[in-house]
Amino acid sequence: MAQLWGGRFxxxxxxxxxxxxxxxxxDQKFYRQDIRGSIAHVTMLAATGILTEDEKHQIIDGxxxxxxxxxxxxxxxxxxxxDIHSFVEANLIDRIGDxxxxxxxxxxxxxxxxxxxxxxxxxxxxxxRELIFxxxxxxxxxxxxxxxxxxxGFTHLQKxxxxxxxxxxxxxxxxxxxxxxxxxxxxHRMNYCPLGAGALAGTTYPLDRDMTAQLLGFDGPTLNSxxxxxxxxxxxxxxxxxxxxxxxxxxxxxxxIIWNSNEYQFVELDDAYSTGSSIMPQKKNPDIAELVxxxxxxxxxxxxxxLTTMKGIPLAYNKDMQEDKELTFDAIDTVKGCIxxxxxxxxxxxxxxxxxxKSAMNGFTNATDAADYLVNHGVPFRDAHxxxxxxxxxxxxxxxxxxxxxxxxxxxxxxxFEQDIYEAISLETCVGKRNTIGAPxxxxxxxxxxxxxxxxxxxxxx
Length: 462
Known about the structure:
By secondary structure, this protein is mainly alpha-helical.
């Protein structure tokens, strides 16, 4: 097929070179965005007198026909076209004749692909943000239901202090709230229209770039034509945000995998989000959590690949930048799938609350509170720390918990202990008295849940 740019050349491009150069296999995803951008461009060309009203209507009708036929499957996007822009323009000319050749007036494929990429990533970013919102709603529900579901909190994967499941989930609530905010920030920075920048130096046609930007829902036109076609910061930012989202999902998945193990049994995953073994009939594997954890590296790879691609590119457009698409498309699909499946997994998993509470009791998570008890009875903290250390060693030797020691055993180590030690080291007391904002106490958690409720409501009403 003759190329739209073939006038300068005296012989056909080698087929291998053509195939290597072509982008139609992946940028066909842009067909809706490409046609939408073209309709806005033609509308502006007519408003500025560059095209007649009749030419505008012929072109727009033709573009709508192509859109309908591609969407219905009547018109196939094939490899005989170099890219989606060539496909649309060639089919438009076939349908309406020479008037279709005026579609490209005042623009280049450089600003055209820059527009398509912005429109596509903008749409996809909003979809990912909506999925994050649904995940936040599920986390919020888990928090409200588990303010008094006790479990051990960990550092270094060692039991540290008692918390609640609401408090633990609340940590991820904060992470994904930040992710939601990052996506919103990126949307505002990316929402400027590059169409009209031309190849790199604008055009002599009296384009109304403000009108084009408005028609396409942008906040305004980009302000430097070279940057307009050479910028992929918004894609890098988006991939960076996606990588952070995946990191958060992966951390949570790792904990779910541990909690689901025979040794912990804190949670039981629904059958729909688990698989069995082909040889071991007793197995119930947390495959979705493991796949989310595994696919995180895939999204990291997309970010690093694009950063590497862009690092040595001089202004303005270079063909290297074509490499932004496939890896971005894959990262988008991966993130969307992982968030959706993860949300379904946590919404259907069952908590073994009794096991979680027993684990907190058996791990000396209340040792710090026992030390605080001594301090409150006049023992210097350093001495109190040493006394509780002796008690923990005693309990390990006897294979008992702090709650299971008799008062006589306590007094044998320190006469300061009295009957009220048992109330002081109960999980309810250990957690309940921690009520500074951000702590796991019920009063503090209810404050945070109210803040989250308002946050989610503000999004729903926006």
